[in-house]
Design brief:
Elements lengths: L1 H17 L13 H16 L1 H5 L3 H17 L14 H14 L7 H8 L1 H10 L1 H14 L2 H47 L1 H7 L1
Length: about 200
């Protein structure tokens, strides 16, 4: 599966970034095609986990920083997807950073709770994208360069913390309903399990 998925990954990059092919709606960022491709890349990583584990974490970390330098270098080109989630360099950077820590075992409840809420950060970012862009542009226009970077760093931490807090409250409010719903679904499926087995 590895050569086929990597070939599909390369084909997607050429169609999106070079030819801007619109037939699959992949020319402007993250589509269903990209989600499927990310799943396939994840499966490839899983099938090759033994080979990946042989590479030292320091090498993955160094590869991550190389990808970051390439991403920043793209700012000086005409490439339109520098910060896009579908940028292949961004995807490679994500995998490199993941592989760097994949061998580590985190027993901290705080780390696990923050990791659970990471998707909420993405959702909140998308929902408030225009507001965040306005804050970024205003800060860049009215603040000095050093103050801008310090302010945005602090703002990013506060925004991330707010999203984690929001997700924690959301879970606390909906946990009872979720548990009851799952209990009823389990009873329903166990009731008709013999029918499902017969159909299979």
């Amino acid at each position: 599966i590895t050569p086929y998925v990597l070939s599909l990954f390369l084909l997607e990059f050429i169609m999106e970034s070079v030819f801007r092919n619109e037939c699959l709606h992949i020319e402007d960022g993250f589509s269903l095609f990209h989600f499927v491709l990310m799943y396939l890349l994840g499966r490839v990583a899983y099938f090759n986990k033994d080979k990946i584990a042989r590479i030292r974490p320091s090498m993955w970390l160094m590869s991550y920083f190389v990808c970051v330098i390439i991403i920043y270098s793209l700012l000086f080109t005409n490439y339109e997807h520098t910060w896009a989630y579908s940028n292949p360099v961004v995807i490679m950077a994500s995998f490199c950073l993941f592989f760097c820590f994949s061998g580590k075992i985190f027993v901290s409840k705080i780390v696990n709770k923050v990791a659970e809420s990471s998707f909420t950060v993405y959702i909140m970012q998308i929902m408030n994208f225009e507001v965040l862009c306005y804050i970024d542009k205003w800060s860049l226009t009215h603040l000095s360069f050093f103050t801008y970077y310090v302010s945005m760093f602090i703002f990013s931490i506060l925004f991330f913390g707010f999203c984690v807090l929001y997700d924690t409250i959301r879970k606390w409010l909906t946990q009872g309903i979720y548990n009851k719903l799952m209990e009823k679904l389990n009873l329903l499926f166990s009731k008709y399990s013999h029918v499902i087995a017969f159909v299979k």
